Fold:
Amino acid sequence: MTESKRLKIGEGKISGYLSIFLAIICLGTTVCAYFPEYLTTSDFRQLYNPNRIKWIFLFVLLASFGFALTSFILSKKTKLGFFGILIIAGSIFLATGLPEYENIESKSFTIGMDWLLIDILISSIVFIPIELFLPKRPHQTKFHEEWRTDLIYFIISHLLIQVSGVLIKLPAELLFSNLGLSNLQSWVQGIWFVPQLFLALFISDLFQWTAHYFFHKTPYLWRFHSIHHSIKEIDWLAGSRLHFVDLIGVRAFSFIPLYVLGFSPSVFTTYIIIVSFQAVLAHSNTRISFGFFRYLIVTPQYHHWHHADDPKAFNKNFAIHFPFIDMIFGTYYPIGKAWPESTGLGNVKFPKGFIRQFFFPFVKNPEAENSIKSPSER
Ligand SMILES: [Zn+2]
Ligand SMILES: [Zn+2]
Structure:
């Protein structure tokens, strides 16, 4: 799709797409249930109860059916509701033949399909209404030019969660596993929950700032990070557009202090939830200003300035949790009430699609290719 198409209420298309989307989630859930040892992650499995998933499955199935009916009622022309029903029928057919739930064998390599399905469902429920009803750029829709590429980034990064988890932990484990840090770690774990969580967020953001800064300032690393800055129509889904080298590099570096200090499991889990949520929120296309909190925590407005196609904001606002980290390092852009006019890298051409973008930084220098602003200017 080359042009932006804004969906209009009452045409039966929004309900049709919602029906298909929810039906695909149901179909994916039944496929997961057939091959749980390969398609679900052992860490994540402990967080949900398969019996509860059955009820959620039923609820999502009914919602999908309801949207398909709405689509039929609103318009005879669109066939979207019909496709929704077809996928629902397929899911029910597969679900009836499901084997009894047994203890799941842990395999050394698994695909995070459970993580993908749950996260895309929750993120859509939270962020699609926010962007639909409180958008910053109302002309922008889910169906802008590159939404499919962004969706592929989202899908692949979730499916490969186990591989990225291993790679993210690797440098910390290789470098710091034999340092005899148990005294320090038990002291950290003894800190009260709230300050301990704040410490985890603060110190990982310091490391994130450093890695992020070098991904901007080092020409070879900028090749990878420039893919993320190629986003022109920034929204919650586009935030996933991160080259694998960028994703692993920044996260592995941010993980080092968390590993060394050995935060308690409850703090670590809360940290993961906050960092995942805030990263998506920071990219979302919403005008919610967060009032005074916008000076204390990273908000969409703050991070949109990091993506601004405006020289006065180049190399600013690197933090992902706390703006005061940028204030400490002199990279704070005072956001006030303004928003950037546009985001992205001007007229620089990037290859389209996940695969081309994956190979691009290894073989080409976007700077030389496109007379892009050099990393030192950004
Ligand atoms: Zn950046
Ligand atoms: Zn970003």
Summary: The mean pLDDT is 88. The first helix runs from residue 13 to 34.
